[in-house]
Design a protein that fits this description.
By secondary structure, this protein is mainly α. The protein has helices spanning 6-15, 23-50, 58-67, 103-108, 143-146, 148-151, 153-157, 171-185, 189-201, 209-221, 227-242, 252-264, 276-294, 301-314, 320-333, 335-342, 346-357, 364-387, 401-415, 428-435, and strands spanning 84-86, 94-96. It is built from 20 helices and two strands. Helix 10 (209-221) packs parallel to helix 12.
Length: 436
């Protein structure tokens, strides 16, 4: 049974000028017309769903007609409600009531004003940082009056704040993080090596990088002088740095403090006889690698690290173990850092070492620390000489020639023949001239 009545089709045909259409023709056309109407309505419903509209409107019907290359409906897209009235001949048929307009009235309506042409107008926003008081600029009011509403408690309490978006990890990522952190903290060498190799080579762990950096920071902070754990954490940190797929520079604010703690920490192990010197050297090399790799992007990173080392060297109450790490750090940062920060304070620092180096010093731990500081001081000074092309380099450096001569004389007086292995044959004459 058709949903459309024959009377509907006959009225539509009459509106199109087909008055003599027969009943048999109407019966033949009725199924075809119903099919076309159903197709248009179904397409319109699709447009409604895809546009997330709560109900069907004439816009969706027009879009369905355009998709089928049919003429759109006119006069039904107005926002106002459409009034329908029943036909006089049939009470079951309705038509949209439309207001009749006089063409003469429409033609006699005066034309509206022509819109202005776009123009470009210039004015000063500020002159020497001061906003001029002109009509084009808004008036500058006192901050207390401008922001009264913001400071109002009633205003602040009714502000809708969106909750922070939580970083969701998959179960595989969570399991990987758990296994790697457990391996880093374990004593199983093979398991730890496999975990560190994965950190250094796996390109798919970028989502876990903030968690690993936080893990290293927290474990160093609460290591309780566990030397083996600190070594494992520094190895994990190095693996993150060498992984080319990771953007470690975003998390240097957590990694650098942890590494500097291993360089300058007062006590890194329970037994002072343990080899915490190797840990300080390893961590100082990591800091130098970070400064070299990210120094161009973060211009102040090496300056801040050098300032930290310099503060440890010049502090008269700083323990020698901390100063040992600072000396190693300056050595790895290069000759310019040693010229500007180490050598000007060398004489004062060496005078502090002398009492601790005496055999009469009853503090054996302090004597051992002072001997290690003396050894790295000799090595740093000799490395600086071996890195220099000639001693004339000092004339263009931050040190004057006379100051450099005094330093060389002081080094030879303090270290003597210990510096000779670091000096190349072409430097012997200039070195002797400075010493004499």
């Amino acid at each position: 049974m058709s949903l459309l009545r024959p009377e509907t089709l006959q009225i539509v045909a009459q509106s199109l000028g087909l008055d003599d259409i027969s009943d048999e023709c109407v019966r033949e056309l009725l199924p075809e017309v119903e099919l076309r109407v159903r197709q248009v309505v179904q397409d319109a419903l699709k447009f409604q769903r895809h546009s997330r509209r709560p109900q069907l409107d004439p816009t969706h019907v027009n879009q369905a007609l355009q998709a089928r290359n049919l003429e759109s409906l006119y006069g039904f897209s107005s926002p106002g409600t459409v009034k329908y009235k029943p036909c006089e001949d049939s009470e079951t048929l309705f038509f949209a009531e439309e207001e009749e307009l006089e063409l003469n009235e429409l033609l006699n309506v005066p034309l509206g004003q022509i819109p202005l042409q776009p123009v470009l107008n210039l004015h000063w926003l500020a002159v020497d940082g001061v906003q001029p008081l002109i009509p084009e600029n808004e008036s500058v009011e006192d901050d207390s009056t401008c922001h009264t509403s913001i400071k109002d408690e009633a205003f602040v309490n009714h502000v809708d704040r969106k909750p922070r978006v939580k970083h969701i990890l998959t179960e595989e990522m969570q399991l990987y993080y758990t296994k790697v952190t457990e391996a880093v903290k374990s004593d199983d060498f093979e398991l730890q090596r496999a975990a560190l190799t994965s950190l250094a080579q796996d390109p798919g762990i970028h989502q876990l990088l903030p968690y690993f950096s936080r893990f290293i920071y927290e474990e160093v902070k609460h290591s309780n002088h566990d030397l083996s754990l600190l070594f494992s954490l520094m190895r994990a940190c190095r693996c993150l740095l060498v992984n080319q797929s990771l953007h470690v520079e975003l998390y240097l604010h957590q990694l650098i403090p942890a590494i500097l703690t291993c360089v300058l920490g007062t006590q890194l192990c329970e037994n002072p006889a343990d080899d915490h010197w190797a840990l300080r050297k390893y961590a100082a090399k990591l800091v130098a690698q970070i400064c070299e790799r990210y120094g161009e992007k973060y211009a102040n990173i090496q300056a801040r690290v050098s300032k930290t080392y310099h503060k440890a060297i010049t502090d008269p109450v700083c323990p020698f173990s901390t100063q040992y790490g600072a000396l190693h750090g300056m050595l790895f940062l290069g000759p310019l850092v040693m010229e500007s920060l180490l050598f000007p304070n060398l004489e004062k620092y060496y005078r502090r070492l002398e009492p601790a180096l005496l055999s009469s010093n009853p503090n054996l731990v302090q004597r051992l620390e002072a001997q290690n500081c003396l050894g790295i001081l000799v090595h740093a000074s000799g490395t600086y000489f071996s890195m220099s092309k000639s001693m004339d380099r000092s004339a263009s450096s931050s040190l004057s020639s006379s100051a450099m001569g005094n330093i060389v004389a002081l080094l030879f007086e303090a270290f003597g023949e210990s510096l000779l292995p670091y000096i190349r044959p072409e430097q012997n004459d200039s070195m002797l001239d400075m010493c004499l």
